[in-house]
């Protein structure tokens, strides 16, 4: 019986060593896993921070696009206002050209009329 107890004690000691080895391995794995979880947490925070920065950039771009759109709209309105003015200016240029042509014709007629008077006046003076 003493040999059985000794045998049992040796197997218990061997099993205890094996259990201790398993516990140490488990502790190492838990420690490694804990470090990996911590690292993953840091990485996730960095991803969240980067996503916030991207969102802020997108918001800034959206604001710029809205401002540019308003600016383009104002340019469009200005061009729309310029169009009638341009047409009015073109009409005034045509009227000015017609008036200029009419004045030119009247100046020729006046020149001819004055030439007649000058000629008649000069003949009378020459005859006297």
Provide an overview of this structure.
The protein is an all-alpha fold. The chain is built from 1 helix and no strands. The mean pLDDT is 89.
In this structure, how is the largest beta sheet organized?
none
Radius of gyration, taken over Cα atoms and rounded to an integer in Å = 54 Å
What helical percentage do the residues reach?
over 70%
Order of helices and strands: H
The mean pLDDT is 89
Number of strands: 0
Can you tell me the residue ranges where pLDDT is under 50 for at least 5 consecutive residues?
A: none
Would you tell me the structural class of the helices and strands? Answer: mainly alpha
Q: What overall geometry do the principal axes of the alpha carbons give?
A: rod-shaped
Please count the helical segments.
1
Strand content: under 5%
How far is it from the N-terminal to the C-terminal residue, by CA? 183 Å
Question: Which short descriptors sum up this protein?
Answer:
rod-shaped; mainly alpha
What is the topological layout?
Blueprint: H1 2-127
Q: What can be said about this structure in brief?
A:
The chain has 128 residues and is mainly alpha-helical. The chain has 1 helix and no strands. Helix content is 98%, strand content 0%.
């Amino acid at each position: 019986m003493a040999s059985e107890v000794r045998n049992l004690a040796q197997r218990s000691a061997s099993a205890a060593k094996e259990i201790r080895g398993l516990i140490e391995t488990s502790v190492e794995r838990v420690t490694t896993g804990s470090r990996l979880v911590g690292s993953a947490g840091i990485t996730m925070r960095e991803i969240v921070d980067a996503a916030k920065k991207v969102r802020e950039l997108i918001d800034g771009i959206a604001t710029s696009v809205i401002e540019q759109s308003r600016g383009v709209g104002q340019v469009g309105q200005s061009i729309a206002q310029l169009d009638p003015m341009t047409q009015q200016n073109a009409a005034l240029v045509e009227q000015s050209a017609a008036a200029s042509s009419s004045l030119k014709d009247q100046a020729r007629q006046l020149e001819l009329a004055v030439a007649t008077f000058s000629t008649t006046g000069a003949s009378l003076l020459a005859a006297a």
